[in-house]
Amino acid sequence: MSTIVAKTPPGWQPTLRRHGWTIGVWLLLVALLAAYAGLLPRFGSFQVTSIAKNSLPLVYLAIAQAVIVIAGGIDLGVGAVLILSNAVAAQLMDGQPLAVTLGMAVLVVLLGAVLNGSVGWIITVSRVPDIVVTLATLFIFSGIALLVLPSPGGGTSEGFRALFTGSASGTGSNFVPSLLVMVVPLAAIAWWMRKTRTGLSLYAAGSSPVAAYLSGVNTKRAKIIAYGIGGGFSAMGGLAALAITGSGESRFATASGFTLRAVAAIVLGGIALTGGIGSVVGAAAAGIVLYTLSPFLSALGVDPNTAQVVQGVLIVVVMMIAAIVELRRLRAT
After folding, report:
1. In the prediction, which pLDDT does 1 show?
2. Where are the chain's structural domains?
3. How far apart are CA 90 and CA 146, in angstroms?
4. Can you give the pTM of this predicted structure?
C-alpha cells in the first residue's frame, strides 16, 4: 500500500504569506530612510532622534485606529481624543514636578480609554454606524478641547519631555527614549492581540461578526475593548505631542489632520478596512513612513503642496494593491 505524504512548504513561506505586507512596509521604511540619509550632507543621531520623536503621535494614533479597524469598526474621532488629551494634560501638568506629571499622564491615558470605550458602547447599543457616531465625536471632543484650552499654552515638566524626546528641552540627539516609548507599547499590544484570547476575539469580531458570535465570542465586548484601547493610544499621542512641543494645542485642524493621516497609515500598513486582517506592527511602520515622507520630499526640493499630492497618490496606489491582494485571497479560499 502506498502512502501519500503531503509536502510541507519551507518554514519561511507561511510566515511570508501571513506577514508579507508588514515586512514589505518595514522594508519600505528602511529604503526611505536610506534614501533620505543619502540626500543629506550628514545623517546621524540628531536626524534619527528627530524622526523617532516627531513620528510618535502619528504612530500612537495609527496603532489606535488599527486596533479599532481590526475589530470591525472605524474611528474618525481619534484625532479629537488626541487634542483633548493634549489640552487636559497641558493644563494639569503645567508647573508640576516629574512625579506629578507621570501620575497625570496615567490618569489622562485612562480617561482617554474610558471616554472612547464609551463611544464603542454607544455604537454597540444604538447600532448606529461607527462612521456616523465617531464623526460626531470628532466635533464634540474637539469642542471640549477648545473649552479646556482656548489658546495654545500650558506645559509639562522637563523630565516628562525627556521621557519622550531624550532631552529636557525637547531637542537633542538621544534617540533611545523615543524608540523605547514607541517600541515597548507597540510590542505589548501586538503580543496581546496575537497571543491572548481577548486579543484574538478582536480579529474574530472584525473578520465575521456572525461567525464569531456563533462561536461564542462576545462581539459587543470586543468592539468596546477595541475602542477603549484606541482611546488609550490616542491619549498617548496627545501626551507625546505635549512632550515634543512643551505646550498644549487644541485646533480642530490638528484633530482632523491627525485622523486622516491615521486612516492613511493603517491602509498603507496593510489593515483591511473591512476588519479582521492586518497587524499593528505594519500600521506603526506606515506611520513613520508617512511622517518621513515630508522631510524626504523637502530634501528633494519638492514643493509642499506637491508633496501632499505625492502622499495622496501613494495612498491610492497602496489601496489598489491591497484590493488586488484581497481579491486574490478570496479567490484562493
Report:
1. 45
2. 44-332
3. 12
4. 0.91
